[in-house]
Design brief:
426 residues; alpha/beta; Aspartate Aminotransferase, domain 1; Aspartate Aminotransferase, domain 2; globular; binds 4'-deoxy-4'-aminopyridoxal-5'-phosphate
Length: 426
C-alpha cells in the first residue's frame, strides 16, 4: 500500500497532517480478526468504534449486501419507498422502547443528533412557544457537526475554537456516582437546579444514557437517568437519549435506558445499526413529538438528506437486527462482562492505573498519565491486538462474538502496556 501517499495527503481522525501518527494498512477482516498487509492478524478490541458487533465479514450481512446490490443500491426516499427500509423500521420499532412510533433515517450518528435537536426545536415552534436551549451534561459526546458539538463537553470538543459561531447551551455537572456504587441524592442537584432555572427556555435534555462514551468512558448510576426522566416530565421538557454508542446490546441491555427503565421522547441510533457495515442512523420519535412537529407551520419535518433510507444500508441493517433477534447477544455480552469482572480488577496493582470499570461488553482502564499513542499502538500491534486508546483511557468494546481467549488476549496486552514505561507520557 502506498503509505507515503496516505501520510502526505490523507487526513485521519483527530490526527495532525504535520506529524501524522503511524497508520496500519488493513487488507481484510473476518470474525474478530483484522488482517494487516504483512499478514499479521489482530484480535479486534474496538468493534471499529462500537459498530461491528457481529464481527467482520459476516456471512449473513454479506448476503444481505450482495442481494440488495443486485436489485438497487440507492434510490431517492422522497416520494419512494422500498422493502429494506420497511423491514428495518419494523424491526427497530419492535425492539426499541414501546412509546416510539416514528423513524427518521439519515446518514450518520452526528446527523441523527442534528435531526433530534431540530425535531425538538420544531416541536416547541409548532406549539407556539419557541424554545432554543438544550440542557446536557459535562463530559458528554454527541458528534462533530456543529449542533452536535454544541451539546458535547465544551472542553473536550474545544468550543473556544468556534466561539461566536457555536450556539451556547446549558451544561449540568456529569454524574459522579458509578453504576455499581451507592446512589447519592446530591448527584442530581446541579441538573435539578439548571432544569428548574431554565425550564421555559429548554427545548430538550440530551444525554448519553448510562455510559458517557468518547467524553470520558464514564459509567454512571441508573438512578441519575431515572431522575432526569422525572425532572423532564415535571418541567415539561423533552428527553432525547443518544444511544448511538450504547444501543444494540453494548451495555448488556438492548438499549442502555433499560437499565433505568425509562423511555425517551426521541432516540438516536447509529453505529451498530448496520452491524458496522456502512453508515446509517435512525432517529425515533414518539407519536406526540412527530404529530406535533408535523402539525406546525412547516407541516413536515424540515430535513431530507440525499442518502436518506439508503436501500443497501437498510438491507444490511435489517439483517443485523435479525441477527440480534435470533442470536444470543445477551449470553455473549454476559460472558464478556464476566471476563472483564474477572480480569480487570487485577490490573489495579499497576501504579499507572487510576481506575478500572466495565459494563456489558465495555471495559475501561483509566491511567494516571496520558498514553504515548505511537508507542502503545505499536506495542498492541506487536501483541496481536487492536486497541486504540485516547488520552488517559485504554478501553475495549470487542465484537459480541469474541470468545474468552480473545478477551484474555486483549487484557494481557493491556497488562503488558501498563508495565511498559514508554507507553505513557510522563
Ligand atoms: N453520539 C455518540 C454517543 C457517539 O459515540 C458518536 C460517535 N462516536 C456520535 C454521536 C457521532 O456519530 P458519528 O461518528 O457516526 O457521526
Amino acid at each position: 500500500m502506498d503509505l507515503a501517499f496516505d501520510r502526505q495527503h490523507i487526513w485521519h481522525p483527530y490526527t495532525s497532517t504535520l506529524t501524522p501518527l503511524t497508520c496500519y494498512p488493513v487488507t481484510s477482516a473476518k470474525g474478530v480478526y483484522i488482517e494487516l498487509e504483512d499478514g499479521k492478524q489482530l484480535v479486534d478490541g474496538m468493534s471499529s468504534w462500537w459498530s461491528t458487533i457481529h464481527g467482520y465479514n459476516h456471512p449473513v450481512l454479506n448476503e444481505a449486501a450482495h442481494g440488495q446490490i443486485d436489485k438497487v443500491s440507492h434510490v431517492m426516499f422522497g416520494g419512494m419507498t422500498h422493502q429494506p427500509a420497511i423491514d428495518l423500521c419494523k424491526k427497530l420499532l419492535k425492539l426499541a422502547p414501546s412509546n416510539l412510533e416514528h423513524v427518521f433515517l439519515a446518514d450518520s450518528g452526528s446527523v441523527s443528533v442534528e435531526v433530534s435537536l431540530k425535531m425538538a426545536l420544531q416541536y416547541w415552534h409548532a406549539k407556539g412557544t419557541p424554545r432554543s436551549k438544550f440542557l446536557t451534561l459535562r463530559d458528554g459526546y454527541h458528534g462533530d457537526t456543529f449542533a452536535a458539538m454544541s451539546v458535547t463537553d465544551p472542553d473536550n470538543s474545544m468550543h473556544s475554537l468556534y466561539k461566536g459561531f457555536l450556539p451556547e447551551h446549558i451544561f449540568a455537572k456529569s454524574p459522579q456516582c458509578g453504576f455499581w456504587h451507592e446512589w447519592h441524592e446530591s448527584d442530581i442537584d446541579d441538573f435539578k437546579h439548571k432544569i428548574s432555572q431554565h425550564n421555559d427556555e429548554i427545548a430538550a435534555v440530551i444525554l448519553e444514557p448510562i455510559v458517557q462514551g468518547a467524553g470520558g468512558m464514564r459509567i454512571y448510576h441508573p438512578e441519575f437517568l431515572r431522575r432526569v426522566r422525572a425532572l423532564c416530565d415535571e418541567h415539561n421538557v423533552l428527553l432525547i437519549l443518544d444511544e448511538i454508542a450504547t444501543g444494540f446490546g453494548r451495555t448488556g441491555k438492548l438499549f442502555a435506558c433499560e437499565h433505568a427503565d425509562v423511555q425517551p421522547d426521541i432516540l438516536c441510533l447509529g453505529k451498530a445499526l448496520t452491524g458496522g457495515y456502512m453508515t446509517l442512523s435512525a432517529t425515533l420519535a414518539s407519536k406526540n413529538v412527530a404529530d406535533t412537529v408535523c402539525g406546525g407551520e412547516a407541516g413536515c419535518f424540515m430535513h431530507g438528506p440525499t442518502f436518506m433510507g439508503n436501500p443497501l444500508a437498510c438491507a444490511v441493517g435489517s439483517a443485523s437486527l435479525s441477527l440480534i433477534e435470533e442470536e444470543n447477544w445477551q449470553a455473549q455480552t454476559n460472558m464478556i462482562e464476566h471476563q472483564f469482572a474477572t480480569r480487570l480488577p487485577k490490573l489495579r496493582q499497576y501504579s499507572q492505573v487510576k481506575d478500572i470499570r466495565w459494563l456489558g461488553a465495555i471495559g475501561v482502564v483509566e491511567t494516571h498519565h496520558p498514553v504515548n499513542m505511537e508507542a502503545i499502538q505499536a506495542l498492541f500491534v506487536e501483541q496481536g491486538v487492536w486497541i486504540r486508546p485516547f488520552g488517559r483511557l485504554i478501553y475495549m468494546m470487542p465484537p459480541f462474538i469474541s470468545e474468552q481467549e480473545h478477551i484474555g488476549k486483549l487484557v494481557d496486552a493491556i497488562e503488558i502496556a501498563l508495565q511498559t514505561e514508554d507507553c505513557f507520557q510522563s
